[in-house]
């Protein structure tokens, strides 16, 4: 398969494994890279020196390209950016912030920059800031998300209508059929998150992975819009947030209730009741925990067979 996305990253398939806090370390990113996709390290849950370690280990585990996802809310972001430059990582996906802030510095250092957005307006701002490609992420997606609730099915064609640089679709894609649908709508590549959580190489807790496999349609919800909207599984912690909303809470009340390290507690330490368990709506279609290479292979072979089926329509 060859298009602007495979050429931009020098990869075999236009399939990107999303950078995900507490899930995507060097094991997952290198497994996806070795399987022909683009693997991303999730810097959002790593201290700067931990990120350096993951970069070094990833380089040992693969000679294929890989990248780093940098959520710009990160407190130590300057150090993270410096380490990426020092360690000569060539691909960065930025998210949750203004693409103008770091794009020129990264590009001056020969780095390919992609920015994640959830609306047409911000896709165009990212293009203006000089990024090489945009990830447009719909309402279905796991983790932090936009406030507009625009679904992937509507967001992709609307962004495509106006964007000139390559477009990568994210949110609700876990299969080859999903990938094909996104590409028919105008994407040139897909970013897959939730499906890779249920992989053997994801660094999250086994109990969380199993809960993702057990999840059914309707088991996730997007909440905490006043802070940073996030889609999570409806567990005891989620119910306590819903309870708090009945009292008309202030932003400070929500921050206090969220406390520190909820996501780590849930996804990494496996506290399924009190932790924040980030996952997308497509969890209802994820039925097993597999090696990342098998996930890539299955998605690509289903993509190819679905493409043939469609020609018969
Ligand atoms: C557990 C989890 C953690 C995530 N962490 C991040 C993150 O650190 N940075 C980021 O840009 N996006 C993050 N996301 C969003 C993904 O990068 C991706 O865009 C999204 O998962 C795509 O939708 P899907 O889950 O339906 O595949 C996360 C998603 C999940 C499920």
Automatic annotation (TrEMBL):
<keyword id="KW-0288">FMN</keyword>
<dbReference type="Pfam" id="PF03060">
    <property type="entry name" value="NMO"/>
</dbReference>
<protein>
    <submittedName>
        <fullName>2-nitropropane dioxygenase</fullName>
    </submittedName>
</protein>
<dbReference type="InterPro" id="IPR013785">
    <property type="entry name" value="Aldolase_TIM"/>
</dbReference>
<dbReference type="GO" id="GO:0051213">
    <property type="term" value="F:dioxygenase activity"/>
</dbReference>
<keyword id="KW-0285">Flavoprotein</keyword>
<keyword id="KW-0223">Dioxygenase</keyword>
<dbReference type="InterPro" id="IPR004136">
    <property type="entry name" value="NMO"/>
</dbReference>
<keyword id="KW-0560">Oxidoreductase</keyword>
